[in-house]
Amino acid sequence: MARRNKILVPGARQALDELKARVTDTNDPQDAKYEAAGDQGIQLNKGYNGNIKAKDAGKIGGNIGGNMVKEMVRMAQEQMKKNNP
Questions:
Q1: Cα separation of 11 and 75, whole Å?
Q2: Contact at 8 Å (CB) between 24 and 36?
Q3: Which of 81, 64, 83 is nearest to 17 (CA)?
């Protein structure tokens, strides 16, 4: 499946994939969406999933992205505390 989202910082894909794997408790960032779908009771298969509702697809991606943003904010706050004791 081709990635359509564009990352603004070249070379950041690996770090974002590692963050995605960390917030979803998986070893492989490609498995993150299947883990998130399973947690929400949404049947997601490897390969074509054009049969799922847009609402369900949004729940999967939104859950992952939301958790990634929360983790990045937490990391930034922690870094700010270290720099300004």
A1: 19
A2: yes
A3: 64
Domain boundaries, the chain: 13-44+51-83
pLDDT in tens, 41-60: 888 888 888 888 888 888 88
Concatenating the DSSP letter of every residue in the chain gives: -------SSTT-HHHHHHHHHHHTT-SSGGGHHHHHHHHTT----SS--TTS-HHHHHHHHHHHHHHHHHHHHHHHHHHHHHH--
Report yes or no on whether pTM surpasses 0.85: no
Which residue carries 């298969």 as its tokens?
45
